[in-house]
Amino acid sequence: MPPGTRPAVPPATDPVSGTDAVSGTDPGRGTDAASGDRRLALLMHAAFFLLLGASLARFLMRHPGEARTPWIIALSVFLAVLHLLGPVLGSRPTPRRLAWLGVLVAVWTLLVVLAPSFAWCAVPLFYTGLRILPPRAAMALVCLLTVFVVAAQLRLATGFDPILVLAPPAVAAAATAVFVQMQRQSVRQRELAAQQRGLIDDLLRTRRELAATERRAGTLAERQRLSMEIHDTLAQSLSSQRMLLQAADRSWDADPATSRQHVRTAAGIAERGLAEARRFVHDLAPADLAGEGGLEAALRALAERETAQAQGALTVRCHVEGTPSAPLPDRVQSALLRIAQGALANVFEHAGATAAALTLTHLGDRVVLDIADNGRGFTPSGDARRPAGGVRGHGLPAMRARVGQLGGTLTVESAPGEGAVLSAAVPLASAGPPDPAAPRTAPPAPPVPPVPPVPEERP
Question: Where is the composition biased (Pro residues) (predicted)?
Fold first, then answer.
């Protein structure tokens, strides 16, 4: 996975409780309103058939063998069948649904006229009307059914009873208030569920956008890292081979032995470049760090290799100061080795130096790498990243980027004719805080040999 990237986006719900990971609410709670409506509808259906059966039984017990009995039984069965057809037609106020409700109320009214005992079946009809009709029409239907209930109760009574006049309107008002409140809660729950779904969708979309942004940032960081790796390994190797082959071509006729030595050196550099490329493809780690000895052994091997490659024109020495309290992290070792490779390549190609020194200093809370040379020097400039009209100049910016990624600093001290010293200081996170009472000493300057005359041309 490229640096700077994160794993794939996790789900927005808790896999254990099923609740929303952000708000802590259940995304499926919006379905609770619908399930509550279904349970209430089933309850009202059961109440209707219970009241219808009780009314029919009461009529048959009180009025056995009357002429209207077959009609009462037939109308009761027809009313039950009509009520069973209600869920098939749905709950929306379609013309078919309204016609069904009208027929249902008409049959019930006829039954109440023939047998007042069926008046209490009006309570489930209240619920049916409130569900299907608009508010005003539903209220009108409730009032009409209440009037029929009161009239039926007065017919059954032997005399005037105030409770028979006041109880049905009170029951109708209470049932209507309960149904209306439940409908409002159902609508509110559906609205809240829709808002939660919208928030969850926004959260998922934001997470996807954040993940895409982080992937792009990781890709750019990985590209920068790869460019630095290629510059410090393959590009430097190819540049050295080109210089050696050009020198061999110039002296091919005049000095064949020197030319063959240049070619052999270029072949050795090509072999090391091939090993570096294979290692680079395998795990992007420097090949010199693959063996034992760590960074110190790799720096010494680098110094010996650069000295042999220069064939007497440049001598590179390596010094190690102090002892690390713990092994250096792989990232720190790799970065410092790459910085040393890039700095020595610049010394070899541009400084005209005859001596250079690598100094690795362990200071407990940080590690410092100094690269010093006795070359012609230059005037450091923070904005001079690339020579005008040239394609070189990536070395110092790449070194600064490497050190910056580790939280360190890179300083360059130089002046024309006085050589140059490049210092890379990297803090170590594992090191404890420095002792405030301990004296602070700067790392010793690397030894630089006296500056000999600079040759006009060097192979």
Answer: 1-13, 433-459
